[in-house]
Amino acid sequence: MEVRIKKESGIEDLVKGFEKKELEQEKKIIEGGNVAELLQSYSSILYPFPPVRLPPSIKPYTPNEINTFLQATLSFEHLSHYPSFTGQYLTTLIQQNFYLGINNFTIDARNLPSLNQFSNLNGKEDDPLTLEYKGNLNFSNLRNCKNLAFTVYGNITEIDSRETRQNANLTIYGSLLFFITSAVTSNFYIHSSEGGIDYSLLSGKTKNCTFKSPDQKVIDELVNTLHYGDSNKIYLINPDKTETLVWNK
């Protein structure tokens, strides 16, 4: 699917005052069917921010259409609230489409600014919502997630997974700097400590969770901060891919 964007005038005008009239004048011409509809919906509530409620999806969109739409939002990346608004819109769109029977989402955001949000993603016990994200995330608010398989190929600055319920599985093939969680019956994989780590805000309410990493610094930080939790396990992944249990309390 090809999406073509044509500017009616300079994108810089968008960031001079954030007035709705100016934003309307800066609408892009996009050819791409469903992608055009998504972008029109997105741009119509881009100002003011935050929206009270995102409009419900009236029909399903394929994971490819959602990803193509996301690339088209780059026209608005200069707006200060682009990372939070776009992340919120994308999260809601994914959840709505899951309810409509769509799953196995792959998002390629490697050319986008680091996004925020990703909260309230809920799948089914026998059909977890599966999301693969390629790119970096700034703040990932994983609160109230359940039956989720979320894989990130990139680095995350901060995750807040307090109130994460059950069967929320997060795999990070990158680093995670700040980690806040009181998750229950969930699984976490953190690949690297590159860039630093601070998990001092891990909550004593974290229960029945499994943490894995091949990075000894990540393991040490988890051991030092999870001793307040209940029935959690920590595994070091060895170079030969075997696993060593280093914490089970």
Topology:
Blueprint: E1 4-6, H1 20-25, E2 29-31, H2 34-44, H3 63-72, H4 82-99, E3 105-108, E4 115-117, E5 129-134, E6 137-141, E7 148-153, E8 156-161, E9 168-181, E10 187-192, E11 210-213, H5 216-225, E12 233-237, E13 243-248
Parallel strand pairs: 3-5, 4-6, 5-7, 6-8, 7-9, 8-9, 9-10, 10-11, 11-12
Antiparallel strand pairs: 1-2, 12-13
Helix pairs in contact: 2-3
Tell me about the largest β-sheet: 11 strands, mixed
CATH topology assignment of the largest domain: Pectate Lyase C-like
- The Cα radius of gyration reads 20 Å
User: How many β-strand runs?
Assistant: 13
Overall helicity: 10-25%
Order of helices and strands: EHEHHHEEEEEEEEEHEE
Distance between the termini: 51 Å
> Helix count?
5
Walk me through this protein's architecture.
This protein folds into two domains: 103 residues, no CATH class; 132 residues, 3 Solenoid (Pectate Lyase C-like). The chain is built from five helices and 13 strands. The strands form two sheets. Strands 3, 4, 5, 6, 7, 8, 9, 10, 11, 12 and 13 form an eleven-stranded mixed sheet that branches. It has a two-stranded antiparallel sheet with strand order 1-2. The N terminus is likely disordered.
Put the structure in a nutshell.
With 249 residues, the protein is of the alpha/beta class. It contains five helices and 13 strands.
Key terms for this structure?
single chain, 249 residues, alpha/beta, Pectate Lyase C-like, eleven-stranded mixed sheet, two-stranded antiparallel ribbon, 13 strands, 22% helix, elongated, disordered N terminus
